[in-house]
Amino acid sequence: MRNNNVNVLIEKVVGGFFRIIFLGLFYGIYKLKNRVNFIIFLVVSLAAVSLWLNFDSYSSPYHYDISVWMVALLPIFYVYVLGIMRISSINFYNIKFEAINFIDRNRRRRRYPLFIQRKKEGIGTKYIFKSLIPIRDWETYKHRVETALDGEIINISEGKTKKLIEISMISSRFKLETSIKWENKLLNPKESVYVVGKSKVGEICFDINKNPHILIAGTTGSGKSVILICLLWQAVLKNCLIYMFDFKGGVMFSKIYEQFGEVVTERSHAIQVFESLVEENAKRLKLFRDLEVENIGEYNAKAKDNLGRICVFCDEIAEMLDAKGATKEEKEQMDTIKGLVSTLARLSRATGINLFMGTQRPDANIINGQIKNNLDVRLCGRFSDKTASIIVLGNTYATKLDNIPGRFIYQLGNNTSQFQAYFFEKAMIKNKEEIGYNPGYMITKKKSDSAAQNKNHLVTETESKTFEKGSTQDIAAINFDNFDFE
Asked: Are residues 163 and 130 in contact, defined by beta-carbon separation less than 8 angstroms?
């Protein structure tokens, strides 16, 4: 009985030994796919051959046989070492996934994601795993995987096959700055690209030709207004036409901003402005269709024109659209504004009319589905209320942000990143003469200027507003064939 147990033990030891040898060589050969490893293998092999051929000149007869075999086995030993390192890496990550119980539950055996590769990407790291765990489960258990790998996941994607999962991460030791001062040299040279801050992987920016409307949300003190003003200043430096909506008595957009555009503080005036923008948008759509261009950049390039990009900034949507406690007349005005804003959000994606909408009180009744769905870019500060975070981002990430002024979440589609917004001060605003502010034109205003010249008199501010004034019904009834666009 004792002999049988000894025999079984010996078989296990011998079997285990050969298994380790086999696995070491197997994984070592696999590692030779790496170019550096293969080059080193070739160098070792050439060195072994050279030593073999010249062995007689520097070897004593006593050690000859052993030394010959050691030299001959150098390449194999190198492959085996590579394999052992590979096995150690696999076991290392198996232990991590075991700690968070992240396994393929569709198999009888406990199978953890198989570690394939780890490589540096700038300040980050990309991990590649082979697994039968679907990517949706990786995304669901993202925070557990972050804990296991000790970092922040920037992106999870499938590799060449669905079995390969690629994870881009930043080490948890890397921290965001808590304050980054804006400088004009940070301005992106491309006319349609705006920057808002820095994440762990680089600058956060978006292209308003591709994603034209932006929602900026955050509680008081989060830095929402700072981001809005920073974006407005960039629009000024890019020579955009500016409209500013402030229903808190014009405190947000003080007189220094009036040199760059119109500040709207009353709903009745807001209706007139939005109606004129809807009319402008309709004319631009026809213009672009006739010239067969897709956006304002293509139009200006093809027509060699200077049609101006229009940027609309609203500090607080709720003040403009919240009907709670409002009179019947005020509710009617809000409904009209909401309809006009929805029209612009839906139809001005290519015409160069861009909405920058801020709010500290996200409400599903205020930011309706049509408006929200067209505000592609979301910049969200910290909220203690989960509902507010869900309305803006579709998740509760905003409730987990550090309580640091300027700390925001950037979301565009499935891309979500935490970033520190640029700190912008009112003192950074310069006079338009200093910066050479020279925006393009609007079709509606150009037509009014032309009409005034034909009458041989200058258009006063009151006359200009009267010309632009109209109703939603009038805009809907426009016959574009009657317009001779210059």
From this structure: yes
Count of positions (residues) in the chain: 486
Residue type, 66: I
DSSP 341-379: HHHHHHH-TTTTEEEEEEESS--TTTS-HHHHHH--EEE
pLDDT in tens, the chain (486 residues): 555 554 445 555 545 555 666 666 666 676 677 777 777 777 777 777 776 666 555 455 544 455 556 666 777 777 777 777 777 788 888 888 988 888 876 655 668 898 888 888 777 889 999 988 889 899 888 889 998 998 888 888 898 898 899 998 888 888 888 899 999 999 999 999 999 999 887 899 999 999 999 999 988 888 999 999 999 999 999 999 999 998 877 678 888 899 999 999 888 999 999 999 999 999 999 999 999 998 999 999 999 999 999 999 998 888 888 777 788 888 889 889 989 999 999 999 889 999 999 988 887 777 777 777 889 999 999 998 888 898 888 888 899 888 899 999 999 887 888 899 999 998 899 999 999 999 999 998 875 554 444 444 333 333 333 333 343 443 444 444 444 433
Q: Are 252 and 412 in contact (CB under 8 A)?
A: no
Q: Which residues contact 163 (CB under 8 A, 6 or more apart)?
A: 130, 131, 132
- Number of H helices and E strands in the chain, helices first, is 17, 15
Q: Which of 174, 196, 178 is nearest to 124 (CA)?
A: 174
Q: How far is CA 455 from CA 63, 71, 449, 469, in A?
A: 112, 101, 10, 19
Contact present, 242 and 235 (Cβ < 8 Å): yes
- Whether residue 60 contacts residue 67, with contact meaning beta carbons closer than 8 Å, is answered with no
| Euclidean distance between CA atoms 257 and 253, whole angstroms | 6
Pairing of strands 353-359, 310-314: parallel
The conformation of residue 205, written as its DSSP 8-state character, comes to E
Tokens of 237: 């430096």
195 vs 39, 205, 358, CA distance in Å?
44, 4, 16
Query: Quick one: which H or E segment has residue 244?
Result: strand 241-245
Strand ranges of the sheet holding 124-130, from the earlier edge strand across to the other edge:
114-121, 124-130, 164-171, 151-158
Measure the CA–CA gap between 191 and 197, rounded to whole angstroms: 18
Report the alpha-carbon distance of residue 468 to residue 87 in Å, rounded.
74
Q: Which structure tokens are listed for 358?
A: 């801020």
Contact 349, 285 (CB under 8 A): no
The DSSP element (H or E) to which 158 belongs, if any, is strand 151-158
